[in-house]
Design goal:
The complex is a heterodimer. Chain A is mainly β. Chain A contains no helices and 11 strands. Helices cover about 0% and strands about 55% of the residues of chain A. In chain A, strands 2, 4, 5, 9, 10 and 11 form a 6-stranded mixed beta sheet that branches. Chain A has a 5-stranded antiparallel beta sheet with strand order 1-3-8-7-6, with no helix packed on it. In chain A, about 35% of the residues are buried. By secondary structure, chain B is mostly beta strands. In chain B, strand 4 and strand 5 form a beta hairpin. The radius of gyration of chain B is 13 Å and the shape is globular. The N and C termini of chain B lie far apart (about 30 Å). Classes of the chains: A mainly beta, B mainly beta. The interface between A and B is medium-sized, with 27 and 27 residues.
Chain lengths: ~110, ~110
């Protein structure tokens, strides 16, 4: 049973346009959400996060939006750059002992110049 | 360099064999997490150790085991290997026992079972 779902395996956008990556979750106990970026032959690297008490967090070109009622979050990248081409993982956590970050399957973003 | 070191980077072995993957956490981090990334699968949480003790357990098979040593490095042991165990195995670390605000990942070990 997947608790964190990224239903789009891939996304292609042109340089300069907006990239929107989506993520849905099922566990209402999740209270912290993160996005990781992964390049080939490298480990995932932390990109941006959001607490459940917020609905938006911005860091430069990256903004994460959280809709708790819909159990949905999205990552917006504006403007998209070719160097943003990577696999993006959505992750969630609950403040419970014995739990760890739960990841989605990832979305491969391709930004063309 | 994330500071999390995983060895070896690549491993090819036959079915039925046993392998050991090694992870050194970032300096000062006491927690180590193991994740598996199979084809078309996300990062599946296997197990967490904190300061030598098992802290959390995920979808880890009985054929797999792990431990964390006094110097805080961790080893993931995979035995009776099957073709389906071929995957990328990532280690991550964090400073605290319950720190779900983000881990630092190593670059992974790619295991191929033939």
């Amino acid at each position: 049973d997947q608790q964190v779902k990224q239903n789009s395996p891939s996304l292609s956008v042109q340089e300069g346009r907006i990239s929107i990556l989506n993520c849905d979750y099922t566990n209402s106990m999740f209270d912290y959400f993160l996005w990781y970026k992964k390049y080939p032959a490298e480990g995932p690297t932390f990109l941006i996060s959001i607490s459940s008490i917020k609905d938006k967090n911005e860091d430069g070109r990256f903004t994460v939006f959280l809709n708790k009622s819909a159990k949905h979050l999205s990552l917006h990248i504006v403007p998209s750059q070719p160097g943003d081409s990577a696999v993006y993982f959505c992750a969630a956590s609950a403040d419970q002992a014995g739990t760890a970050l739960i990841f989605g399957k990832g979305t491969t973003l391709s930004v063309s110049s | 360099d994330s500071g999390v070191t995983q060895t070896p980077k690549h491993l090819i072995t036959a079915t039925g064999q046993r392998v050991t993957l090694r992870c050194s956490p970032r300096s000062g981090d006491l927690s180590v997490y193991w994740y598996q990334q199979s084809l078309d699968q996300g990062l599946q949480f296997l197990i967490q150790y904190y300061n030598g003790e098992e802290r959390a357990k995920g979808n880890i098979l009985e054929r797999f085991s792990a431990q964390q040593f006094p110097d805080l490095h961790s080893e993931l042991n995979l035995s009776s290997l099957e073709l389906g165990d071929s995957a990328l195995y990532f280690c991550a670390s964090s400073a605290e026992a319950q720190y779900n605000y983000g881990y630092t990942f190593g670059s992974g070990t790619r295991l191929t079972v033939v």
